[in-house]
């Protein structure tokens, strides 16, 4: 069993056009590869709600703040395709950078407000890169539904704003964060944590889950 791999917009749109002739509902699950159970949960959710599911795999250079970080990002297309095939996903769209950003490409999608602060404050230009590639993927696939994990919460809000502001007829479906046994949110970047960092990282989830205790001098209401 294998999953068809498509590299060009033309091939992608030809396949989607055939599905449309059959009045099939299409979903897209955008990823940068190095798939883990969190990604696969999105694919399963998409398969529950759509007749055809496209998983995209594109390590988007426009959302990286450093060349070193881009170069170090894990690339595991063969393994990713092997994980997707048993699930029944219908296509892996894995374009080259030259297909997504051909010579002379000069457009950037920028989302104000929700992209500012939080992660956006420490990664200038990151969400512009996310917004640009996601807008392209929505328009290239023409999907009815798009599935994103709540782990990247700020990104989720950016994506929703793109669809709303640009009148892209797609429903954004948010799915719960999938965690490791020690509560660390699953992420493709976890493999880059050192042993000591990997031990510390799960504490973040525990801290965020803590409820603030009442101050020692606080009085109970009666």
Automatic annotation (TrEMBL):
(R)-pantoate binds at residues 63, 155. One of its GO terms (molecular function) is ATP binding. GO terms for biological process: pantothenate biosynthetic process. The keyword Ligase applies. SUPFAM superfamilies: Nucleotidylyl transferase. It is an enzyme of class 6 (ligase). It is found in: Cytoplasm. Pathway: Cofactor biosynthesis; (R)-pantothenate biosynthesis; (R)-pantothenate from (R)-pantoate and beta-alanine: step 1/1. It holds the Pfam family Pantoate_ligase. InterPro entries: Cyt_trans-like, Pantoate_ligase, Pantoate_ligase_C, Rossmann-like_a/b/a_fold. ATP binds at residues 32-39, 149-152, 178, 186-189. It comes from the Bacteria. GO terms for cellular component: cytosol. The keyword Ligase applies. Its main location: cytoplasm. Its EC number is 6.3.2.1. Beta-alanine binds at residue 63. The reaction proceeds by a bi uni uni bi ping pong mechanism. Belongs to the pantothenate synthetase family. PANTHER family: CYTIDYLATE KINASE/PANTOATE-BETA-ALANINE LIGASE, PANTOATE--BETA-ALANINE LIGASE. Catalyzes the condensation of pantoate with beta-alanine in an ATP-dependent reaction via a pantoyl-adenylate intermediate. Homodimer. This is Pantothenate synthetase.
